[in-house]
Amino acid sequence: MKSICSLLFALSFFINVQSQQQASVAARSAFQDDKFGLFIHWGVFSILGDGEWVMNNENITVNNYTKLKDFFMPVDFNAAEWVSMAKQSGMKYITLITRHHDGFSLWDTKQTDFNIMNTPYKKDVVKMIADECHKQGIKLFLYYSLLDWRREDYPHETGRTGQKTGRTGKGDYNSYLKFMKAQLTELLSNYGEISGFWFDGHWDQTAPEGEADRSSRINWHYDEIYNLIHSLQPNCMIGNNHHLTPFPGEDFQMFERDLPGENKSGLSFQKASALPLETCETINNSWGYNIKDTSYKTVKQLIHYVVNAAGRNANFLLNVGPMPNGKIQTEFTDSLKRVGEWLHKYGESIYGTRGGKMMPKEWGVTTVKNKSLYAHILNKPKENALNVEGVTAKIASVQLLMDKTPVKFKQTNGNVSLELGNVNFDDIDTVIEIKLK
Question: What domains lie within the chain, and their CATH numbers?
Answer without folding.
Answer: 24-353 (3.20.20.80), 356-436 (2.60.40.1180)
